[in-house]
């Protein structure tokens, strides 16, 4: 029944949804552990993918990946589905709710009218849980909020089929079966291995560490190739993706540091604990970068850095993360 689902606030939407759905299925896993096993940390700069004319930057793995990988690595069975029209998507949701199944889904933030107006903008990769329906209203567990919410049929349907990149296409997902026991140690190790591959191995300049250097090079050339207005918009979008979408660049590093700390305790592995401390410092570096970029956007005179200096800050982050993931990859487990 709806009242059996326990809502818990988390830092990031998909890892929070996954953690809450796991707990509902009898597996108590923290958000940092969920994020780490799901290899959620990432970086990508996609100049060929534009949102409102601005190149895309992402600090997390693509939507749906965390839930898929965590459940796969822990041996849970799941159901995922996309739809061609709103009516079929809403009917499938109602059918799952009638069976007392809490349903995760991807939605466009702009149409989620339970959010404060200042938080509602065109971002189509937000995760939430619908866990029941009462008096024509859907009961929502949105992990970024302290409490639960409600939303009507029309607004939820619009959110599930929001236009723009990426299109949610009514995607919904839920757990169908959970094992009696899980191999958490293997999940941790597999998650770390996957993360190191994603950050260190892609040969293209748009993903992983390479993408950090690519963005640094582009930022240095912004004043030469863009108008002052475009410079502000491009930098502002990087800051928004880092600090406002989910937990962003610095926040994701802090979340991953918490994962490594938990993993160190669970596996009795001191080296992971030391790497956790280094990962926290990486988060601080990203926050300093965002602060400096914001000063440029607001044209503040004090503490103002040049685009060349901002680019150098980002290259420094790239150097730090390159060594960090090299050392994390080299960790040996008994």
TrEMBL record:
Residues 154-328 form the DUF4872 domain. Residues 12-143 form the Butirosin biosynthesis protein H N-terminal domain. InterPro entries: BtrH_N, DUF4872. Coiled coil: none annotated. This is Butirosin biosynthesis protein H-like.
